[in-house]
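Section 5.1 Outputs to date
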Amino acid sequence: MVREDMANLLLIDDDSTLIPEQVRQAFPPPHQIEVASTGALGLEAMQRCPPDVVILDLHLPDQSGLQVYEQLREQNARVPVIFITLAKTAEAAIEATKRGAFDYLFKPLDLLKLRRVVAEALEVARRQSPVLLQESAPEPDVDGALFGACPAMLDTYKAIGRVAAQDVLVLITGESGTGKELVARAIYQHSGRANAPFLALNCAAIPENLLESELFGHEKGAFTGADRRRIGKFEQCQGGTILLDEIGDMPLALQAKILRVLQEQCFERLGGNELIRTDVRLIASTHRDLKARAAEEKFRPDLYYRLSVFSIHLPPLRERGDDVAMLAKHYLRRFSRELGREIRDIAPETLSRLRQYSWPGNIRELQSVLKQALLHASGSVLLPAFLPALEWSAPSEPAQVPARSEGFDLEAFVRQQMKPGAGDVYAQTYRAVDRMLFAVALEFTRGNLRDAAAALGISRQTMRLRLRALGLQVGHTLETGEDGPS
C-alpha cells in the first residue's frame, strides 16, 4: 500500500545535479528516489521496480518526455506522472494534461508546490484511479501570445488540456485583450474537431438585425435587401467549432435561439421553415460578469447555466508578474521582423517601466505599445525614450481595508476611490473585498487554508492564487502539510 510518509519516486531527468538535489531535499529518507538520466533508463527502472509517482522531464537526450510518457503508460497506466520543464509555452502543458499527465511544473522547482503535488499524486496512486484522457492530435503551431509561466497561465494550459478532447461547451472569461480567442483556438486545435472549420464571431461588433443572419443564415426575400439565400456560420462550420466572442452582449431574443440550438441541435434560417440539423461545438467568451447580467435580466439565466459548466478565466496582464517581460521580448522579436527593424534587445530600464504599467488594455495594448516604440526606435536596443507617452507610474498599492468585516463600508470605499483620474475602481473594489473576505475566512478557520477555501466554496488552488495576487502570505509547513499564517 502506498504511504505518503514513505514513497518510491522515479525521477527521469538528464540534469545530474540541481533537479535530483531539489527532489531529495523535498523528499528526504525514508522516501526512496531513483534517478534516470535518459528515457530508456527511466523505462528500464519502471519495468524493474514500478514507483508510486514518476517525475518526468519534458526534454530528454534520447527522446521527448511525451514519447517516454506514452511508453510508461503502456507499462503501467496507474502510476501518476508529473512533468517538469524549463519551457514556458502553452503547447507542452496542454498536450501533457490532455494525454492524462497528473500535473505540470516549471523549473526551477518550487519545493513546496512539488511536495503538495506529489502528495496529491500519491493519493491518486492509493486509490488506483488516475485520470486517463483521449490521445492527442498532431501538434499544431503554437501561437506566440499564449504562453507564460505565472501560476494562473499554467492553470489555463491545464484547463485547456482537460476539456479540449471532451466535446462540451466552454466559457472563457477575462478582460478585453487577455487572449480569449487564442484559448478558444487552442481548445479547437487540440480537439477531435481540429480538421473541421473554426469560425469566430464577435457578437458586440455586428448590428442586432444582422447577427441572426450571420449565425443562422437567411432565405431569399427574408428582409429588405435579402436578394439571395445566405448560409450562416452554423452551416458553414458543420462538424467544427464556433466561438461566440462577447456573448454577454448578444441580444436577449437571439440568446433564446442559441439556447434552442444547444438543446435541440437544430435551427431554421431567417425567413425559412426548413429544420436544419447541426453538429457544432460551441465556445463562448466574454469580458462581462454573466451571472450579474443574468440577475439584471440582461442575460438569460438558463443560457448562463448551460455555458458555465466548464469555465476558463484568463488573468489580466497586470497580475502575470514576469510574464510581462517574457511577452515583451517575444513581441519585440516578432514585430522587428514584421517591420524590418534591427532592434534585438530591450534595455533593463525599459523592462522596468513595462512591468510598472498597469496595462488596462492587456496584451493587445502591450502589442500596440511595442509597435509604436519600434517605429520610433533606432539602434539595436529598445530604450525607454522610444516608448509612447503613457502614465508610467508604478501601480497604486492595493487599498488597505480592515482585516475584520466590522467597519468596512463598501459604498464608502467605492466613493473614496471615485476621484479625478481614477481608471481602475472596479478592480480595486474587487481586490478590497477579496482582502477583507479572505482575511475574515482565515481568521474564522484559524489560518487553515483548506477549511477557509471550503467555507468560501472555492478550491485551495484558487484561493492561493488570489492571495498571491493580493500580496497576502499564507505559509505551508512541509512536515505537517498544514496551512497556516506565516
